[in-house]
Design a protein that fits this description.
alpha/beta; 228 residues; Ribulose 1,5 Bisphosphate Carboxylase/Oxygenase; globular; Rossmann fold; 4-stranded antiparallel beta sheet; 2 domains
Length: 228
């Protein structure tokens, strides 16, 4: 078993209770021994779902009011006048077959991929690459869109997508450690409420099994979601 570092032990000693309300959990994360970089803050939602059932696959897209603080790379598949619109709106790379080639060779790893409907025949072939990373364009999430300007600008402002994995857990970033307590709280609440509203209609009883937040390098803190 790998020995815990002194910093990890000190940080774990700061977490004295089994569960915390979200506001106090954020305060504790900020008191922990920091890393040598600005850490992201992530949430993990363990759900009482059966991932093998299609109707239990939880997916969603939200615009975090205060963004994620992450520098993201945006790729846009589009044609015609939308090429210039995508470029001026903040896309990092715009194209069709040439962009597909970049993604296939993975010479650039994009965080978000947006597509105009007319380019989806090209994009569909990239499913084995984009699908597992959760960035396959989807009209439900606004990443297959006729309004390229809006889609790119929302992505730049902090629009994120989330989905449950094979273990029925949703992992999502909701800010950086240098955000204010209130900004982190508001971002978390938007994320939590979106996942809560996505509860399958067929699911009876408990939905959330556990909610946990942590920084990139810190131990996790369990959240008392009944207090939300």
């Amino acid at each position: 078993m790998k020995k815990k570092s002194r910093k990890m032990q000190l940080n774990q000693n700061q977490i004295k209770k089994k569960f915390y309300d979200i506001k106090n959990a954020i305060k504790i994360l900020k008191k922990l021994q920091p890393a040598k970089f600005i850490e992201s803050i992530d949430a993990s939602f363990s759900l009482n779902i059966n991932p093998k059932k299609h109707e239990h696959n939880i997916r969603g897209s939200i615009l975090l009011p205060h963004g994620t603080g992450k520098k993201i790379k945006i790729a846009v598949f589009t044609t015609g006048d939308n090429v210039k619109i995508a470029q001026t709106s903040g896309a990092d790379f715009v194209g069709t077959e040439n962009l597909a080639d970049i993604i296939t060779k993975q010479t650039i790893k994009f965080d978000i991929v947006i597509a105009s409907p007319e380019t989806m025949e090209i994009v569909k072939k990239l499913g084995p690459i984009l699908g597992p990373r959760g960035i396959m364009p989807n009209p439900k999430f606004g990443t297959v869109s006729t309004n390229i300007k809006q889609s790119v600008e929302e992505a730049r402002r902090g629009k994120i997508t989330y989905r449950s994995d094979k273990s029925g857990i949703i992992h999502s970033n909701f800010g950086k450690i240098n955000f204010s307590d209130n900004d982190l709280y508001e971002n978390f609440l938007i994320l939590y409420n979106s996942i809560k509203q996505a509860k399958p209609a067929q699911l009876k009883g408990m939905y959330f099994k556990n909610i946990n937040i942590s920084t990139t390098m810190s131990p996790g803190i369990n959240i008392d979601y009944l207090s939300l």
